[in-house]
Specification:
The chain has two helices and two strands, in the order E-E-H-H. The chain is mainly alpha-helical. Helix 1 (36-51) crosses helix 2 (64-86). The protein is elongated and about 50 Å long. It starts with 16 loop residues before the first strand and ends with a helix. The relative contact order is 0.11.
């Protein structure tokens, strides 16, 4: 997966912060935020948003854990969008 998961901090990043989707992030710690499980969860969410549910049918036909993941990430995205509109 390209992007932040492959990011390798430099010495210049130590102590530097950035705002990423409304959250303050220490640049030198970015790789620590991503593990295989995190990337799999994000991938599931992206696929569901692009193609729909993986098991056909409606939301009640999906595994509960998938619905929890989708709801959680949709909620975070909703918070980010709400905060962006306030600016």
């Amino acid at each position: 997966m390209d992007g932040w998961a492959e990011y390798e901090p430099t010495e210049d990043d130590v102590g530097r912060e950035m705002v990423l989707y409304g959250y303050v992030v220490d640049r030198s710690k970015i790789p620590g935020y991503f593990d295989e499980d995190t990337l799999a969860i994000i991938q599931l969410w992206k696929i569901c948003n692009k193609y729909g549910f993986p098991h056909g049918g409606g939301w009640a036909d999906q595994p509960a854990v998938h619905m929890e993941i989708i709801s959680l990430l949709d909620g975070e995205l909703g918070k980010r969008n709400k905060n962006a509109r306030k600016r």
